[in-house]
């Protein structure tokens, strides 16, 4: 999630939201030079439907659309599902979802301040209150969970700062295994707000279990003119979730950009999560 200088929703919600690739109307992703990414790789990513604007190379792969991590495995995996684009603002999922339900997904926190750990606990409570066939719990002390929340420290670049990021489920049905959260003071301040952190983590977990951005077809809805554009269906898929609205949904936890504050499931988000996992 990204945030602009103001706060974009981390994938988009400072971006609150595939790494919450969210931005807030302070965009969450930092802009980085493409010089270290080969022309062939840029062409491959673009051919899969993702914008290469502000793309960043990180250790785990390529960060696109603010908070979405594409690994080399993602780039090599062929598309196996249809892209069902009925309207431009409904909730969307990826082709791959978490399998072997019901199941417990464990979450660990590595080398982060206590407020991040508390925010993970809040996120777990939010998801578990829905009574889904996936539940979340903290991993045992000293062990790494199915999803591990780790930190990185990166300041603003080009008017943006990355709040957090994550990837999509694997083809074998495992949740994406890592969420990266920015510990730089420019991301959340010197005294991060618990509910804001929890909202960004909730968004990134959404990516880990298969949610695309609610406004993936037109990110200008949550990110403003600077975030306008279609993320593209890509080989990960963009399958519309039945029962979700055909008009803009301002409160969705999976909007690409964050509003810089507390944002949890709205009524339509609950419909979407229930459809996939209840």
From TrEMBL:
One of its GO terms (molecular function) is metallopeptidase activity. Pfam families: Peptidase_M57. Residues 1-23 form the signal peptide. Keywords: Signal. This is Protease. It comes from Pedobacter ginsenosidimutans. The lineage of its organism: Bacteria, Pseudomonadati, Bacteroidota, Sphingobacteriia, Sphingobacteriales.
